[in-house]
Amino acid sequence: MEDNKKWTLVIKPGSKWFNINLHELLRYKGLIYLFIKRDFVTFYKQTILGPLWYIIQPLANTVILTIIFGKIAEIPTDDIPPFLFYMAGTVVWGYFSTCLIGTSNTFVENSQIFGKVYFPRLTVPISVVMTGLFQFGIQVSLFLLFYLYYWVEGSIFNTNISILFFPLVVLQMAALGLGFGILISSLVTKYRDLTFAMTFVVQIWMYLSPIVYPLTEVPESYRLLYSLNPMVSVVESFRGMFLGQSSLELSHVIVGAFVTIVVVFFGVVLFSKTESNFMDTV
Amino acid sequence: MSTVIKIEGLYKEYKLGVISHGTLYRDLQSWWARVNKKKDPNSIIGEDPDVNFKNNLIAIKDLNLEVEEGEVLGVIGHNGAGKSTLLKMLSRITTPTSGKISIKGKMASLLEVGTGFHPELTGRENIYLNGAINGMSRTEVSKKLDKIVKFSGVGQFLDTPVKRYSSGMYVRLGFSVATHLDPDILIVDEVLAVGDAEFQKKAIGKMKNLSTEKNRTVIFVSHNMKSIQDLCTRCILIENGAIIYQGNSKDVVDYYYKNIVSHQVKDLSDGDYSKRNGNGKVRFTSIDILNEQGEKENSFTFGSVIVFRIKYTTIKNVDNLIFSIFFSRHSAQDPILIVKNYITKECIELGENGTVEVRISTESLNEMDYQMGYLLSEDGIKKQCDFLEDATSKIRITKDDLYQNGKDWGLANKGMMRVKSSIRAL
Q: Are B168 and B196 in contact (CB under 8 A)?
């Protein structure tokens, strides 16, 4: 194999476990940018309300949750105004589920284009996650608007210095959505059943996360086990940072981060194994 | 000259059949075998005698090939021979089951025109998107934008969403982007079948330019033997996943017609026709295409005579029998020319088993490859007895002085034409 160096590319049967070519991915950053632009531009091209949907969605969800869980079921909200409490949950969950659902269809939805031209497949789910950031940004601004309103009205929030970690929380959320999404998308190429299961999974997952109830409602002895769901630390730390009310402990954050890393790792491994041959099965 | 593509011992195996609960079981079985470093019980590569053959298909079988810099390599072979599989592996859409492909230089593949075009985006936005998908940076595209637009000829619609484009404009824009990628190696599948004759000519010229002026390598797959001969310096013929003949394109195309195509029409029993329809009252038993000397032939020069010798057998009596020959570009569903011959009492006594010979002058045909179809019918086209559509054997009409007088015969007009033909019983 002495002449291996003179080739720019050697195509062999896919055998390596972890063959994500980060260098190549960087070379295609222009493509990621264009995908984001495409998704953003085409999102509201056929709608009347356009980008307003980014605001209507979480507002409607928050109102529903406030009525059902706050007013009817009367679940306590850690002394946070219920509307803000549920809005925090909705905004965070909205971004996560967008990433998860958006990336879980990567292969099947793009099989037409993947079947005709090669480019790093990971550009597609990455662009989905980054497009979601715009939506998330708008919704967080909306949240801050209400935060301001409640503050003017006289509510007291213990917003603290931990807010500096906010970008890390967003990163964890994005990574988790991406990792889990590409894991599913790889399996979907063979077992289409998972597409149907996804709706339930997202729904059940939401109720297993502290979206409609605070962490304090979970018995203390179960909290560490509960924090195996990485969304627990994400949602609770978001609330903790902005509203200063959370019973989250460092151990929960560490467990959540660890699970996130594991999910991303397996997602990437499976994704890179799938991308080399999925055209034969999809 | 140096080698830019080197393919060694390439195999591609497909698992056939439906994905079901069995798939999960077999996947686990294969995985367990891999973990234990045993042979995969679900693979047939390695030629283990007691494996399950019916679920696998080898699309490419021990293929070796070297392509030199600046070469235009044609790839021919009929549908299912493995051409597209080879292209897919070259363009990294799927990986080989075993073997190795080494590539030197930047490669772009054009398996489809306008891949990734989004209908809502404008022509300009789609140029950037398509360029990026094919690995071009934004600045590269910007530099070439004028050339791309000029070549595609969609200038005034550049800021219109491509969903408003005609299919021709769409194709032109897609092809234009692809050829301006400026790759060292360009892989082109049967994409030129779309677009009008003028654009096809332009596209072929562009590809020729790439190789002669810029010393780029082109791999070109086509069913159009004329463009293969026009464009390619070397040609390979693929049959059942292996290269069975290679050399200069004229030799390979001739070999293809003589050895692969011509003997395929003889035996009608095993489905050389993609479709066979009709009520079955009368059936073809054989069809031979001959020249005036009575030798089997598939390629005719303009002005010569084609002899169709058909044998048929009558299963139920019919009053009239009409033997029609369909000449078409792609499919007998869309014929350019139909030659009808009545096998009636006035003309020929209808026998139980008959042989009929029809002679057609090629003067009414154009210089091209014709897809053939044959029909036996009672009373016109409607009551079909036996209709053989889309025979694998094509008829090629060549015109010797085509390039001397510089005139192209253009495309055939559809419609009725008076064709010199005669029929006689043997």
A: yes
